[in-house]
Design a protein that fits this description.
- 27% of the residues lie in helices and 25% in strands.
- An eight-stranded mixed sheet has the order 1-2-12-3-13-16-14-15, sandwiched between helices.
- It has two domains: 235 residues, Zn peptidases (Aminopeptidase); 90 residues, Elongation Factor Tu (Ef-tu), domain 3 (Beta Barrel), CATH 2.40.30.40.
- The termini are far apart.
- Helix 1 runs antiparallel to helix 2 and helix 4 crosses helix 9.
- The protein is an alpha+beta fold and 354 residues long.
């Protein structure tokens, strides 16, 4: 991966961007894409759009979400301990003993999520992970009055875990979901800008996906595209304890995935498959999720139906503080998107023939 691209990825992953507080990451993204776009703009909630060849046809929206999961201060007790609520899908079982950053109006306050020492736990009792409201943050304050001088109800919280390379091309960070996608769409724009683009290309990073797919709906309303590709992470099933007969076979390092079914438009998907074969880009296939959805789910039903597909980057340990991906998959996703956009010609449509 080129040095400038790696620095973009590092910056996006280390920036604090819990849902509703995405501005630090969005500033980094906008600064990077500005050099490849004809126009970069943001809206009232902080969604970002980079536009290339706005008079072209068809109008294509390439989208990833900018936010990460996190926590928010809900209550400060008289002893100075802080209790939280979720921002997105936090698993309370994996947060004990973690360091956190509380993002206050005056700056970052460091804290730790407390855990009862194993020496004091009741060995005869059934061991259960605490519920989120039973976990607490310790910021070292002597009492509640002192704590309230540092933090306030509503302050967002992120985990300290930052970007780190585990090998030459495998990396870990607290929030590849979905800064990996934000990176891939920015790189796709860079690659498209080096060729002849006939389409009108709108590359977006949307806010508040983790709390209800909100920003993508704003972007699709503002852009009204002819077709859309959403880019997100997906669960890699190549680690111990996951039954691939139940959850499918997805590996890191084997390329991005194309999802089959539901929101994924068959004509658009065949075009992506064709491009992947022609460009010799490895892809994997998975079926649509029966337990959740991505921004693609929010996009495809709007304006009477927008042909939409989901491209996903395999990630281990999704929604933990150590999400792990192969950077080659990010690069491949960007190349696939760019090759697809550059293959488009004026008048191309994606309607299902009946």
């Amino acid at each position: 991966m080129r040095k400038e691209s790696l620095e973009l990825l590092r910056g996006l992953l280390n920036a604090p961007t819990p849902s509703g507080y995405e501005a630090p990451g969005q500033r980094i993204w906008c600064e990077y894409v500005r050099q490849f776009a004809d126009e970069v703009r943001t809206d009232a909630y902080g969604n970002a759009v980079a536009i290339l060849n706005p008079k072209g046809s068809p109008k294509i929206m390439i989208e990833a979400h900018a936010d990460e999961i996190g926590l928010m201060v809900r209550y400060i007790d008289d002893k100075g301990f802080i209790y939280c609520q979720k921002i997105g899908g936090i698993d309370p079982a994996v947060i004990r003993g973690k360091r956190v950053n509380i993002h206050t109006a005056k700056g970052v306050v460091r804290g730790v999520i407390g855990a009862t020492p194993i020496h004091l736990q009741d060995k005869a009792a059934e061991q259960k992970a605490p519920k989120l409201h039973e976990s607490y943050i310790d910021i070292g304050s002597k009492d509640g009055e002192a704590a309230k001088k540092k933090v306030a109800v509503g302050d967002p919280i992120t985990f300290v875990d930052e970007f780190e390379m585990l090998s030459d091309h495998v990396a870990t960070a607290r929030g590849f979901d979905d800064r990996a996608g934000a990176f891939a769409v920015a790189e796709a724009l860079r690659l498209v800008s080096q060729g002849k683009c006939h389409a009108a290309l709108y590359v977006c990073t949307s806010v508040q996906e983790e709390v209800g797919l909100m920003g993508a709906q704003m972007n699709v309303f503002n852009i009204q595209p002819d077709a859309a590709i959403a880019v997100d992470t997906t669960i890699a099933t190549d680690t111990p304890g996951i039954d691939i007969k139940q959850h499918g076979d997805v590996k890191i390092g084997k390329g991005p995935t194309l999802t089959i079914g539901r929101e994924n438009h068959p004509v658009l998907q065949e075009r992506l498959k064709k491009v992947s074969r022609e460009e010799k880009i490895d892809v994997q296939y998975e079926t649509f999720s029966t337990t959740g959805g991505t921004d693609a789910l929010a996009i495809y039903t709007k304006h009477g139906g927008i042909p939409t597909c989901l491209i996903s980057i395999p990630s281990r340990y999704v929604h933990t503080t150590v999400e792990t991906v192969d950077l080659d998959d990010l690069t491949a996703a960007a190349k696939l998107i760019a090759a697809f956009v550059l293959s488009l010609r004026k008048g191309d449509t994606f309607a299902v023939k009946v």
